[in-house]
Amino acid sequence: xxxxxxxxxxxxxITELCGIPLTPSYVExxxxxxxxxxxxxxxxxxATWGEAHLACVIGWFEQAERDVR
Length: 69
Description:
This protein is an all-alpha fold.
């Protein structure tokens, strides 16, 4: 899987390729997990993709949070 570079690329991957709707509850749940450095999935994400990409993904979820209001 390639590293996503933009919000639009990320949103397309989540909603179209993965078929996951960006509902307010899903976005809130993911943000809580991604912001928690003790979360097992977040640790695995950082080990695979790095802190910089985690920051991008958190930013994209924050943008999605604004979009779904």
